[in-house]
């Protein structure tokens, strides 16, 4: 937004400017990227207010934001530092606004989020540019608004609408905000050209409304029912509950004790592990798509997909949903028909839930062109193969693609474990070959592992990172190794689960302990869902590389030898009734576990839930540290993003590497050393972890 002052503007701090426009003082937040309310911004606003109060030539005050938005809220990088609590706090700034005899108008463009909206709520009037968004999204970071938002919003727009906005964090656009009474007017053109005369008109009125002094009507509001509707497994469940408590406090208490209560709940959350973890993830997700290497992203028009099975169908949907035209190729008519019918069925299920209308279903289906002619892939800019997981099959497919695809096309494989470089080697364009490892269901799961081969071009990587974000994924760049980041780490996780079974735990106990820890699924139920045959094939392939002296649990192999591959055969670690996904304990599996333990000379013992969680988690952490050290992941936070978005790791724990930081790196290493002492070589600590502890580091 431009500002042409009628008197020169002056800096109140390095992040706030002050200018006079006739008889209106404008306080401009100028703290890129989103005018976060750090200590200098709060101080600047406070000084600006005092200046305007004492200037007889000023009749009204406008607070506005420079750059793309009014204000994105608190400066979360300052949380848990002294700057976050430096005076004046937001509460003091708002108290100064409310005490002002001259009207203060918030002029909102872009967005007013969190503390930004609280600042606006403290103003006497709010005008918003059409298209701007207003929200109190603190719950997404495991927090509640801490600057009076939970006390003023219910007084301004009513308890139920406020409760809904605060505990869900959902935004209102300017139009909805006007209808709700959250803003007083909408500016269609230049915001300041609207806000300045608006402020002067209000100044002429004499007295000005203050949200915190408005009466509050809580008749018919059922807080218990709102609490009962919360999902206790949501990653921000604690914060959602606290948000409801805050709004309830607004209905019970006068404004000042209400503000105290809100602050008390905010302070408890901001010091808690869950909010720290969610804030870590907030930055981790922003960081993940960034890659070093300087490639330039190209444009993707048409997308080609080979294989209309489980993954190919889901990938086709992911692109069609984002508006991309897709050519879906299969090797025979029956498989193609099956694949297309499944895509339609999935869309119709979405439509039946009311999330898509009939026209939306048809528009998406129309973007997917089924084909039995591989030449039809010739014009695609990006081709993704999702055929069987077999190197010979993949190589044959890539030779074919090399022959038919246009120059400059990106040739991607969805392999979950195979070596990208061996696949690239059978083309004459290894720079165009990359791994795009989607997760099942591919139209739903947010994670995409982008696998960089030895010869993959920087532009190809940049293009894939960009297109991934366009289809709503969080891309994480990973290097070539067995299983890349996510599946490689599962190896140790499943290894420990197998050992714990032999030592005395049951499948139900292992899965129960880990789901209570917060995992979306336990490791054994997950193996049943993914298909135990897939891991079995991997174990057989890797058997020759397994050192003979290392302990190996045969439980999974024995289960597979009986033709039990998990849910698809209604039997794996558990048994399943026809048509049901409910895992049921199975004495056959208990027998296998006891046999394996006996053969290995293990005397079974009671195993505690704590031991299960500790061994499975530390196996993830130690392998994650190796992955970071080898440069397979660009950064530790990427490993966390992979686990939270691809493997059901609890967001409120921030991912395995953040979890280790919460435990303390020294304590983590000590536990790993103790496990090595007890269980041997599998627990050799990652050198990176040892080095970091030696240096006294607290983070990876
Ligand atoms: P699937 O068996 O459901 O589908 C494979 C499809 O490819 C079948 O429809 C088959 O007819 C077709 N196909 C085989 N050879 C072909 C060829 N030469 N040309 C065209 N089509 C051909 O398998 P799924 O589960 O979809 O897996 C595909 C790939 O995705 C594998 O590499 C797998 O490792 C990978 N993957 C699978 C995940 C999963 O959860 N299922 C997760 C991530 C990756």
From TrEMBL:
Catalytic activity reads: a (3S)-3-hydroxyacyl-CoA + NAD(+) = a 3-oxoacyl-CoA + NADH + H(+)
Describe which pathway this protein belongs to, using the record's wording. Answer: Lipid metabolism; fatty acid beta-oxidation
For this chain, one GO molecular function annotation is: (3S)-3-hydroxyacyl-CoA dehydrogenase (NAD+) activity
Q: Which InterPro entries match?
A: 3-OHacyl-CoA_DH_NAD-bd, 3HC_DH_C, 6-PGluconate_DH-like_C_sf, ClpP/crotonase-like_dom_sf, Enoyl-CoA_hyd/isom_CS, Enoyl-CoA_hydra/iso, NAD(P)-bd_dom_sf
Q: Which Pfam family would be a valid example here?
A: ECH_1
Q: What are the residue boundaries of the 3-hydroxyacyl-CoA dehydrogenase NAD binding domain, all occurrences included? A: 303-479
Q: Name one GO biological process term.
A: fatty acid beta-oxidation
Where is this gene product found?
Peroxisome
Q: What name has this protein been given in UniProt?
A: Fatty acid oxidation complex subunit alpha
Q: Which organism is it from?
A: Achromobacter agilis
Q: What is the lineage of its organism?
A: Bacteria, Pseudomonadati, Pseudomonadota, Betaproteobacteria, Burkholderiales
């Amino acid at each position: 937004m431009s500002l042409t002052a009628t008197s020169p503007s002056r800096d109140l701090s390095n992040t706030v400017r002050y200018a006079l426009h006739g008889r209106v003082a404008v306080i401009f937040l100028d703290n890129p990227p989103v005018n976060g309310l750090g200590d200098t911004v709060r101080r600047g606003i406070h000084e600006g207010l005092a200046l305007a109060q004492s200037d007889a030539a000023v009749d009204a005050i406008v607070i506005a934001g420079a750059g793309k938005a009014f204000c994105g809220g608190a400066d979360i990088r300052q949380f848990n530092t002294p700057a976050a609590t430096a005076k004046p706090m937001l509460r003091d700034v708002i108290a100064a606004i409310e005490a002002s005899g001259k009207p203060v108008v918030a002029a909102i463009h872009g967005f007013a989020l969190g503390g930004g909206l609280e600042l606006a709520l403290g103003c006497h009037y709010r005008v918003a540019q059409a298209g701007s968004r207003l929200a109190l999204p603190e719950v997404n970071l495991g927090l509640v608004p801490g600057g009076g938002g939970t006390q003023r919003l219910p007084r301004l727009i009513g308890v139920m609408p406020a409760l809904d906005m605060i505990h869900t964090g959902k935004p209102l656009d300017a139009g909805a905000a006007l209808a709700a009474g959250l803003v007083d007017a909408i500016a269609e053109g230049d915001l300041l050209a609207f806000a300045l005369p608006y402020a002067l008109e209000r100044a002429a009125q004499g007295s000005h409304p203050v949200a915190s002094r408005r009466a509050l009507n809580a008749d018919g509001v059922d807080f218990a029912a709102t609490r009962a509707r919360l999902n206790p497994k949501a990653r921000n469940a604690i914060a959602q509950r606290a948000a409801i408590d805050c709004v309830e406090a607004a209905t019970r208490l006068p404004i000042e004790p209400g503000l105290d209560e809100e602050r008390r709940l905010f302070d408890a959350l901001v010091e808690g592990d869950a909010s720290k973890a969610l804030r870590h993830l907030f930055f981790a997700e922003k960081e993940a798509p960034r890659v070093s290497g300087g490639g330039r992203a190209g444009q993707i028009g048409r997308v080609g997909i080979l294989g209309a099975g489980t993954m190919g169908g889901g990938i086709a949907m992911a692109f069609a949903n984002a508006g991309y035209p897709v050519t879906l190729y299969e090797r025979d008519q029956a498989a193609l028909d099956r694949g297309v019918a499944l895509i339609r069925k999935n869309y119709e299920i979405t439509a039946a839930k009311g999330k898509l209308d009939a026209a939306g279903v048809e528009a998406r289906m129309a973007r997917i062109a089924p084909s039995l002619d591989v030449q039809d892939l010739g014009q695609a800019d990006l081709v993704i193969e999702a055929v069987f997981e077999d190197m010979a099959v993949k190589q044959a497919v890539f030779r074919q693609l090399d022959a038919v695809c246009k120059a400059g096309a990106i040739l991607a494989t969805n392999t979950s474990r195979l070596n990208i470089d061996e696949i690239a080697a059978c083309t004459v364009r290894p720079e165009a070959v990359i791994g795009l490892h989607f997760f099942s269901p591919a139209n739903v799961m947010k994670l995409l592992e982008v696998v960089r081969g030895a010869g993959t071009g920087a532009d190809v990587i940049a293009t894939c990172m960009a297109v991934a974000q366009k289809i709503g994924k969080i891309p994480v760049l990973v290097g070539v190794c067995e299983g890349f980041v996510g599946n490689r780490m599962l190896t140790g996780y499943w290894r420990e689960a197998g050992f714990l079974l032999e030592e005395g735990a049951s499948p139900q106990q292992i899965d129960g302990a880990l789901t209570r820890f917060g995992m979306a699924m336990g490791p054994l139920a997950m193996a049943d869902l993914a298909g135990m045959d897939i891991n079995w094939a991997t174990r057989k392939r890797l058997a020759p590389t397994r050192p003979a002296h290392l302990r190996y649990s045969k439980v999974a192999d024995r289960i597979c030898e009986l033709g039990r591959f998990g849910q698809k055969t209604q039997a794996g670690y558990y048994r399943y009734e026809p048509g049901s996904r409910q895992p049921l304990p199975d004495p056959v599996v208990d027998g296998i576990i006891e046999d394996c333990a006996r053969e290995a000379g293990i005397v079974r013992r009671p195993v505690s839930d704590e031991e299960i969680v500790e061994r499975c988690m530390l196996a993830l952490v130690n392998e994650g540290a190796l992955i970071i050290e080898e440069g397979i992941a660009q950064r530790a936070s990427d490993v966390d993003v992979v686990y939270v978005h691809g493997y059901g790791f609890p967001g409120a724990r921030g991912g395995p590497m953040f979890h280790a930081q919460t435990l303390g790196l020294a304590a983590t290493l000590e536990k790993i050393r103790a496990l090595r002492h007890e269980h041997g070589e599998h627990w050799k600590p990652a050198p990176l972890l040892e080095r970091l502890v030696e240096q006294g580091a607290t983070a990876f």
